[in-house]
Predict the 3D structure of the following.
Amino acid sequence: MVMTHGVTCNTAHQSHQKRSQLTVLHRRAGKERRLTEGRLACYKTYQLMAPKKKARSLRLKTERSRLAQQLPDVERLLRGSLVERYKKCGKLGCHCAQGKGHGPALYLSITLGPGKTRSYYVPAHLAKCVARYLGNYQRLREIAERIIRINRKLLEEGFLGEEDRSE
């Protein structure tokens, strides 16, 4: 038996269930609480830690909301790479046969699967727009990854989905 902060914690091992039941007695309240493994064993320790975890979860949720507001417009996304290409026309007397080639011409290159790549010609007047859409996609991925990390932390602390429980 262990006495911590006015709380008595008993551990009884039950080999047939292969898990321990933790009984927590809170002397002041005169109540008995049963907890299973994975939860905090001592009620008083839980009481001391709860406000800190609650504050941390509030900070994480605030950060998640701030990130969600920074997400780019999903209608303005492109995945791929903007590539400059120089092509040779094949005419014998043309300057491109000896030099770099004609160009530069811009192409949007997209990998569709292993060994499958598709290229789309990008006219010069759309180059800035395509570059902006590609940047939006990169920002979306970065922000989504940060939100996912926050959601994992909230899950670990038991605060994920609190706002969904009221529905």
